[in-house]
C-alpha cells in the first residue's frame, strides 16, 4: 500500500528497532575520525565518507574490507587486533557521545504506547553499551540489545535484525527500524522490516533512498508514532 508515494507504516507498530551510532547518538563523526586515524597509523587510507558508507559492519568486516581493497586479501587475526585496538585507543580519548535531541522523548512516547524498544548495533564496546543503558535508563534493557558480538554476520547481512525479530517474538510486519546508514538499511530491509532513515551524517539523502529506505528524515525530532 502506498500513501503519497511512500509505503504505509505498519499498523499497529509493536516494536521499534533502533540503530545506535548516528541514530541515538551524535557519534559518527568521532567514529569516522578514529577509523581514519587508526588506518592511517598502519599506512591505509579510509576516508570519513567510506566510514559512513560502511557503518554497521563489524570491526573485523571493516578491517577486512580495507585489506581486500589495498592488499587483495583478508587481514590476519593479529592485524585485526592491532588496528581495532588502535581505533579503540583513539576513540577513548574523544569526548563522550551526546544523545541526539528527540531520541529520549521518542522512546518515552513509544514506551507510553507499550511499543517494545530494541537496539541493534554493530558496536560491541562496553563503553558505548554501558552508556546506552545509563542514558536511556528505563527504556533500553541489556536483554533487548543486539550487538556486534551476538552475530556471525554484521550489517548489511540481515542477521542482526533477524535475531532481533527472533528474540523479541515479533513479526517483521509489526516492527519499524530506525537507521542512518546504507548498510543498516540494507540489513533491515533484508529482514523484511519497514525502515526509516534519519540522515544525520555526511551522505546525500539519495544514498539512503537507494539503499532501500521507506522514509528519510533529517533528524530524530521529525519522528513521531
Structure report:
It is a single chain. It is built from nine helices and eight strands. Strands 5-4-3-6-7-8 form a six-stranded parallel β-sheet. Strands 1-2 form a two-stranded antiparallel ribbon. It has 225 residues and is of the alpha/beta class. The model has no long low-confidence stretch (mean pLDDT 93). It starts with a strand and ends in an 8-residue tail after the last strand. It has two domains: 2-27 and 97-222, HAD superfamily/HAD-like (Rossmann fold), CATH 3.40.50.1000; 29-92, Putative phosphatase, domain 2 (DNA polymerase, domain 1, Orthogonal Bundle), CATH 1.10.150.
Question: What brief labels describe this structure?
Answer:
2 domains; alpha/beta; Rossmann fold; six-stranded parallel sheet; 225 residues; single chain; DNA polymerase, domain 1; 42% helix
CATH class of the largest domain: Alpha Beta
Low-confidence stretches: none
Strands ordered across the widest β-sheet? 5-4-3-6-7-8
How far from one another are the termini?
A: 18 Å
Number of individual domains = 2
Helix residue percentage: 40-55%
Chart the SSEs and their pairings:
Elements: E1 2-3, E2 6-7, E3 15-18, H1 28-41, H2 48-53, H3 59-71, H4 77-92, H5 103-112, E4 116-120, H6 126-135, E5 145-146, H7 159-168, E6 175-179, H8 182-190, E7 194-198, H9 205-210, E8 215-217
Helix pairs in contact: 1-4
Summary of the model, kept short:
This protein is of the alpha/beta class and 225 residues long. It contains 9 helices and 8 strands.
Amino acid at each position: 500500500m502506498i500513501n503519497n508515494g511512500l509505503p504505509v507504516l505498519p499498523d499497529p507498530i509493536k516494536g521499534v528497532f533502533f540503530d545506535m551510532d548516528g541514530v541515538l547518538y551524535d557519534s559518527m563523526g568521532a567514529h569516522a575520525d578514529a577509523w581514519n586515524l587508526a588506518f592511517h597509523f598502519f599506512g591505509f587510507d579510509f576516508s570519513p565518507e567510506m566510514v559512513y558508507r560502511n557503518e554497521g559492519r563489524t570491526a573485523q568486516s571493516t578491517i577486512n574490507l580495507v585489506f581486500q581493497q589495498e592488499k587483495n586479501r583478508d587481514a590476519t587475526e593479529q592485524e585485526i587486533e592491532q588496528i581495532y585496538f588502535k581505533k579503540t585507543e583513539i576513540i577513548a580519548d574523544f569526548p563522550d557521545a551526546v544523545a541526539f535531541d528527540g531520541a529520549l522523548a521518542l522512546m518515552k512516547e513509544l514506551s507510553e504506547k507499550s511499543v517494545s524498544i530494541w537496539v541493534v548495533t554493530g558496536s560491541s564496546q562496553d563503553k558505548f553499551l554501558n552508556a546506552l543503558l545509563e542514558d536511556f535508563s528505563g527504556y533500553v534493557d541489556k536483554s533487548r540489545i543486539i550487538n556486534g558480538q551476538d552475530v556471525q554476520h554484521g550489517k548489511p547481512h540481515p542477521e542482526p535484525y533477524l535475531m532481533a525479530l527472533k528474540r523479541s517474538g515479533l513479526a517483521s510486519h509489526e516492527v519499524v527500524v530506525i537507521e542512518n546508514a546504507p548498510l543498516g538499511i540494507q540489513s533491515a530491509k533484508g529482514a523484511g522490516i519497514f525502515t526509516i532513515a534519519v540522515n544525520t551524517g555526511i551522505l546525500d539523502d539519495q544514498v539512503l533512498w537507494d539503499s532501500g529506505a521507506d522514509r528519510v528524515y533529517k533528524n530524530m525530532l521529525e519522528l513521531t508514532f
